[in-house]
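Data card: per-record layout.
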Amino acid sequence: MPVDRTPQLPALRNIATRLRIESVRATATAGSGHPTSCCSAAEIVAALFFAQMRFDPHDPACEDNDRFVLSKGHAAPILYAAWAEASVISRDQLSSLRDIDSDLEGHPTPRLPFVDVATGSLGQGICAAVGTALNARRIGSSYRTYVLLGDGESAEGSVWEAAQAAARMGLDNLCAIIDVNALGQSRDTQWGHDMESYAARWRAFGWHTLVVDGHDLVAVLAALDEAAETSECPTMVLARTLKGKGISFVEGRDGWHGKPLLEDDLARALGELEGQLGAETDNPPIPAAPRREEAWTPPPAPPGPADFAAVRLPAYEAGSTVATREAYGAALAALGSSDTRVVALDADVKNSTFSDKFEKQHPDRFYQMFIAEQVMVGAALGLASRGAIPFPSTFACFLTRASDFIRMGGIGNVNIKLAGSHAGISIGEDGPSQMALEDLAMMRAVPECVVLYPCDGVSAGRLVLASAAHSGMTYMRTSRPKTPILYAETDEFVIGGSKVLCESPDDVATVVAAGVTVFEALKAHEELLGAGVHLRVIDAYCVQPIDAETMVRAGTATGSRLITVEDHYAAGGLGDAVSDAVAPDGITVTRLAVRAVPRSGKGAQLLDRFGISSKQIVAAVRAQIAPDA
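The structure for this 629-residue chain is written out next.
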C-alpha cells in the first residue's frame, strides 16, 4: 500500500533548502568546491536520508543500516550537510570543509565512519554499491543500498559493467539514482535532459527504471517507495534536475561547475535560499535499521595470524611440481571453510586462476563478474567495506584495467586481497598482451599495499593465509609454470619477510629473486659453486614491504655486490624495492629485468632472450667479481 508522505513534505522541503544553504556556505568558506552540483541533488538527498533510508545515525557501523554511496563524490558538501542535519556531526564542523586537518575532505573518504568507500573518481561508486548489496545477501540482512550518481559519469564504462552485473545477479536490494542536471564540467552532458535516452539504456540492461522530476519530493518519494517494493532486479531512478537549483542567477546555467559563490554572489544566493524556507518544522524521525529475527551481534574483530593457523592447506611432496596459481586456489578454498567472511570474485578466468576450487566448495560466496575487471574490483571494495574479506583474482595483466579502483581502494586502505596470475614472460606462447610486466610497479605505488610473490606451492598457500590475516590491501602475484616444491610444511612466511636459500661465509655476491626467477638463481648458484664461486641466494617473497634488514646484511656481507632478477619490467619492481632498502647504506644494485617488449615463445627461451635466466645471472656475478679475480 502506498505510504502517505504528505505530513512529511513541509519538513523535507525545509531540509532540502537547508542542505543547499549549508553546501553554499561551506564551499564559500573553503574557497573551493561544487555548490551547484550539491544544489541539484538536494531533494534527492533529503528524501533518502530523512524519509526512505533505515539507519541508526549514531551507529554508522551497524551491520543492518541501509547503505548510501555518493558516486558523484564532488557533491561531498551535501553529504556532510545531511549528516549534520541528522545530528551525526555538528553544523560548526561544516565550516572546516577542505581544511588540511579536517576529515570533511573535498571528496568523501572512509576517515568518516559514515563513508564506506572513497569516491570522487567518477564511475566507481555504483561498482562499490554492487558489493555492499551482495554483502547484505552474505550476512542475511534486508538492508538496502542506495547510490547517487551524476549524469556525466554515465559515460564511464565501469557504470555499465556494474549495470549488467547487478541485473544478472538480480540485486533487488540495490537502488541507484542519477542526478540528471544536464551539465558537466566543461559543457552539457552527452544526453542532456533527454530522459528517454537514459531510460532506454537502463531498461536494456535489465533495470527497473523510473523517470521523475528530481525537485518534486512527492515524485522522488514515490519512486523510492516503488524501488523498495521491486523484486528480482535493481532499480534506477532517473531524476531530472537543474544544476544550481534554488539560486536564480546560476540555476541551469553552464560555467558554474566547481566554483564557490563568493562575496556579493554569496550574499545574494543565501538571501534567495533563506527566503525559500517555510515555517519551522521538526525533522521526520529517521526509520530504524531493519533488524534480523535473530539477535544482532557486532562483527568480529579483524583477523590476526592465529585466526587462520588451523586452516588445513594441501600437503605437497618435496621435489614435486605445482603452479603457484593452483596452490593459491587450493589455499583459498581451504580458507573459505574456516571463515564465512571470505568471499571470492572472478572475471571469467576461474579455471586459470584456480579460484574455481573456492566456487566448488562455497558457491554462495563466489561472485562471477565475467570479463569486467572494474566492477570485480569495485564490488570487492564494497564487500570489504562491510566486513567481508574479498579475494578478487584474474590474470595480473588485466588488473591494470582496474588500476583506478585499486588506487581508490588504497586511499581508504580497504581490506581487499587481490591476486594476479599468469605474470611475466614465463607464461610463454600467449605473447606480450597476456604478460603482466607492470603489475608489481602498479601495486607497489599504492600506499600501504602489501605485495607478495611466492615461488612454490607451500609459500603460496602460507601467503594466502598471511594475506587474509593482514588488515589492509594485499596483492599476490602467481605464476603459470609449475615449479618445484622448495619449502617444508613447517616453514613460516610472514609479511615483510624473505628466505635466505643459500648462504656461506665465502659468498662473493648476493642474488635476490622472487617467483620463477628463484629457480634461475638456484641454477646459477649450482653452476658457480662448481667453479668455486659462492653465491648467496635470497627469495624475496614479500616485495613490499621488502625485508630491508636481510637485504642490507647480505649486501654488506658480500662486498656490496647485490643483484636482483625479476620477471617484470625494470621500473618499479623488485629491483627498485631492493634499491630503496639498501641505498641508505651506500649499497648499489645491479638489476636484471625484462627491458624490451617480449614476444611469444617457450618460457625458458624467453627468460634467456630477455635477460633473466640463470645464464645471465652467472654472467652478472662474474662481471661483478672480475676486478677481484
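Known properties of this structure: Residues 50 and 286 are 5 Å apart (CA to CA). The first strand starts at residue 67 and ends at 70.

See the next section for split statistics.
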